[in-house]
Amino acid sequence: MSDAMAVLHKLQTGLDVNVKFTGVRVFEYTPECIVFDLLDIPLYHGWLVDPQMHDIVKAVGNCSYNQLVEKIISCKQSDNSELAGEGIVAEQFLNSTATQLTYHGLCELTSTVQEGELCVFFRNNHFSTMIKYKGQLYLLVTDQGFLTEEKVVWESLHNVDGDGNFCDSEFRLRPPSDPETVYRGQQDQIDQ
After folding, report:
1. Which stretches make up the MINDY deubiquitinase domain (predicted)?
2. What pTM, to 2 d.p., does this model score?
């Protein structure tokens, strides 16, 4: 409990979590993870290596993100051509999955998250509230650009590109309002 209390003030600025590319619930342990454990809040990510991509699996291994970056740097400095090749493959993986969500990860998320489960999704150094409703994953819309959009509550998570569908509180499709109206709302908010 005291470890969790020591971390709580970091909720205002951000928590240090470090994904591993082997499972949607696999993170390198950091003291910040204790908050999720103590509150029994499931924490997920979708940045996974597809196990069928053997060269990437070999290059990434069981590394966390930070460990993989260090490995890439050391592989680039290596005279060993096999290690240098692994470093290139690992770097290409990070570059090609810069959205921090892979299709393999999305499939694993969809099959792992339980129907109706309210959880936290980590992506691009942000935490989002996620729920699975009727087999589909949804993220709670918290972007200030939607502050004036009363009917937009959830965004579907169905591809890695981030262009989900917006829904209301009952998960009914609700496209955002006219962009000019949204912009005026954003400008009013900035002015305030």
Report:
1. 1-171
2. 0.84
